Amino acid sequence: MRVGIISDMHGNIYALDAVLAELNRLGVDRIVCNGDVAFGLVTPAAAVDRVRELGIPCVRGNTDDFPGQPDRFAHDARLAPVLDWFRRDLGDERSQWLANLPLRRLDLDGALLQFHGAPDNNEDSVLHVSLRPMVERSLDEQAAVLSDYTARVVTFGHTHTPSEHRVGSKLLVNPGAVSYQLTTRDPRARFAVLEGEGDEWAATLHAVEYDWERAARTAESLGLPISAAAAYQLRHGHPPA
Question: Are the beta carbons of 142 and 119 closer than 8 angstroms?
Answer without folding.
Answer: no
